[in-house]
Each structure stands twice: as C-alpha cells, then as structure tokens.
Design goal:
Helices cover 47% and strands 20% of the residues. The chain has 418 residues and is an alpha/beta fold.
C-alpha cells in the first residue's frame, strides 16, 4: 500500500488530514510535527513515499525549508498553509511543488484528496511535449514529471507523428507553434486526422501572436492554448488537469453505455454490435472465431446461503478471471444475471478446448473471501467453434452446449464436435 507523509505541527490539522486519508483513500499516512522528525522518517524509509503534505511554516523550518528537503528527494509535494500572500505563493511555486491548499478553506481537504488521486492516475497517462527549444522541452518535462505523468518528447511535428505512431495511447499533446519541418498548426491538423477530441487533447503553446495564434490553434483542432510569455505553473497544471479529466469523463460516459456497471465487462448491446463486425470478418475468412457461453454453477445457492453481496463478489471474481485471461482482440461480455459470453478470435484450431478448460480450472481453484469465510464457485462452459449462418445462431449453439455441460454434472467444458 502506498504511503503519504504528513508534516504538520498543529494537532488539529495533522489528525484531520490523517483521518481523511484513512477514510477516503487507499493511502496509508505517517504524521510528524517537525522537519527534524520528517528527515529522520525519510532517511529510515528510504524516501519511499507516494507524496507529502507539508505545512509551509514549521517551528524548526519557518520559511518552507521542509519543502526543499522533500522535493530534493523527488517526492511530489502539496503545501498546506494558512498564509498565501502573493510573495508566499510565488515562493511556493518556485520550489517545484505539485500544488498547494489553504488551511482556512473548508474544501481544502477534499482538494488534497482529489489531487493525490489525480497524481496516482497520472502515472498511467502519456503526455507528448513537442518543442524545438531544448530549454522549453525540459521545462515542460520537469513540470509534468512532478505530477508523475509518463512524458514523451519530440523536437518538431514530424518527430511527434513518429512518436504517436509508436505510442498510440498518448492522451495529451502539448505543442509549440513555430518549429522546423512542421509547425504546430500542421501537426494539430494531422493529429486530428487520426484522433478526435474525445480521444486525445491538444494544447497549443507559443510566444508569438498571442490571441490570434490561440484562435488559429483552436480552429486547427486544438483544445486549448497557453502563451509562453505569461506562463504560470499554476495555470499550466490547471489546464493540463482539466483537459485530461475531460477525456476521462467522456470515457466514463462511453463506458457506462457499453459496459456492465458491476463487473466492468462489456454489456449485451456492445457484444452484438461489435460481434457482428467480427462475425462478418470471419465469414470473409479473414479470421477464425469461437463463441463460448459461461454460466456460474448453483449461483442461486450462493445468493440464498451467503446473501446478494456474496453473489456480487462471485460475479466479479469470475469476471476478473475471464477478463485477465482473454486477449484485447476478444470480446468478453456479461449477457445475463450469471451468464457470460465470449467471442474468441483466432483460437487454437487444433485444441480449442485448452483455453476454456484453463478458465474453468482457475475459477474452480481460486476461492472468494466473503466476510472472512472462504468459498469456491465453479462454471460450466459451452463452446461453438464452427461458424454458423449468423452470430445469433452461433451464440444459440454455444448456449445449447452450455446446458449440455450443466445437465452432465456441471463444472465442465463441452465443445462442438467433441
């Protein structure tokens, strides 16, 4: 479990932050009251902290010395202070912190929690910084790494497109306008030929033209614009976070329409919408397709004996095994209460049952912890390997094989032609 360091000399605030972290996050917290104690803890722990929440004014470090100490150990810092005059604010941001929060703001603790969760997510998010200036690329890279983004760099538009080809999962591109070989406008338009605004965000950045460039960047397909001359770290982070979170909200809405809320698997609608395309491809001999129906054995008994919460745990347990074992090219969907359907692309033609037998074994072998009690569930699986006249017919064939497996004693796999 990841651990945060809290350095706060006031008991009221120290306990409040620690209790909030324990109640609302997956983070552990170590709370100390002084810089001396903090240094001792950091030395002993080997700097292995996810982030630090630091009071700016401590009895033995009245001018933010604790911030310098922790930042030097490459730990993201959130400053928690009651004094944020313009002078202090500029001093705080000059120390390469991740953010700050005010003690007299009732929403500050909620903001700190959201910022910690944001930084935690950022490690899985790729951001591409494009600028022909080595100095400004370093400025952008250093800022993004403080928030733990996975940063990629390019010197111009041509190189940026090459990076995107290798890393199609980039979520944000920050690009300068004036660059050799390909300027920012052209790069933005070329990116938009491949990614729409719901897939990848673009922030234009330039020291020229100001408002005119901003309008041209937006018309070329950018989401946002920043002027280099008035570059503020606080504004930069706010704009980056806003663009990333907009993408995440759009993805959440998309997932809600195609995924089952409990298990995270695709729903019945998505299965048939996308499955029809795979089936058509298989009919043209471009790939082979197997269809499996999976059902949890004696699921009603699990609900009756252990309660509906246990039933939900069993569904999530089986779903997790199915999702982790199948490939990205396959479709795994929850199509009924305790029924799942799998479309497997290019499965082993010589031994198609090997994959599904492994799934059955994994479900049967791994127990579920329900209130400290360990129980096991099993699944029956029917697999249709021949392409039928339609996807519906293929699913129907797999369903008949599933019921044959159930009627033959359950906890087994039956495959067409065997």
């Amino acid at each position: 479990m990841e651990t945060d360091l809290i350095v706060e000399d006031t008991s009221f605030f120290g306990l409040m932050i620690k209790d909030k972290l324990k109640a609302e996050t997956a983070f552990e917290a170590i709370w100390v009251r002084s810089m001396t104690e903090a240094v001792a803890v950091l030395d002993e722990a080997g700097n292995n902290f996810f982030a630090a929440i630091l009071d700016f004014n401590l009895p033995d470090a009245p001018h933010g010395e604790i911030v310098d100490e922790v930042v030097a150990r490459h730990i993201p810092v959130i400053v928690f202070t009651s004094d944020l005059s313009e002078e202090v604010r500029e001093l705080v941001w000059s120390k390469n912190v991740a953010d700050y929060a005010l003690k007299d703001d009732s929403q500050s603790l909620d903001y700190i929690i959201s910022m910690l969760n944001r930084i935690r997510k950022n490690a899985g998010i790729k951001v591409l910084a494009v600028d022909d200036s080595m100095l400004f690329r370093k400025i952008l890279t250093d800022l993004l790494k403080i928030h733990r983004y996975n940063v990629l760099i390019a010197c111009n538009g041509v190189e940026a497109l090459e990076v995107l080809e290798k890393h199609p999962d980039v979520k944000l591109v920050i690009t300068d306008f004036s660059m050799p070989e390909m300027d920012g406008f052209t790069l933005t338009r070329k990116i938009r030929e491949r990614y729409n605004k719901n897939q990848l965000a673009i922030i234009g950045i330039s020291s020229e033209g100001k408002n005119l460039l901003a309008a041209r960047f937006i018309k070329s397909g950018a989401n946002d614009f920043i002027i280099k001359q008035s570059f503020l770290t606080e504004e930069f982070y706010s704009r980056v976070t806003q663009n990333i979170e907009n993408l995440e909200h759009i993805q959440m809405l998309k997932d809600a329409s195609v995924k089952d809320f409990l298990t995270g698997l695709y729903n019945r609608r998505y299965f048939f919408d996308v499955g029809q395309k795979l089936f058509a491809n298989a009919a043209r001999k471009n790939l082979t397709l197997g269809c499996a129906m999976v059902d949890i054995d004696h699921f009603k008994k699990v609900n009756d004996i252990y309660g509906h919460e246990a039933g939900d745990l069993a569904l999530c347990h089986v779903s997790s095994i199915l999702k982790n074992r199948m490939r990205e090219s396959d479709i795994v969907a929850r199509v009924g209460g305790e029924e799942f359907c799998i479309l497997a692309v290019n499965i082993n033609a010589e031994n198609p049952g090997e994959l599904f037998e492994e799934l059955r074994r994994k479900v049967a072998e791994y127990p579920i912890d329900i209130g400290g009690q360990s129980i096991k569930v099993a699944v029956s699986i029917g697999v249709a390997t021949e392409l039928a006249s339609s996807l519906d017919d293929m699913v129907c064939h797999a369903d008949k094989l599933l019921y044959k497996a159930k009627n033959s004693g359950r906890n087994q796999v039956i495959i067409s032609g065997e």
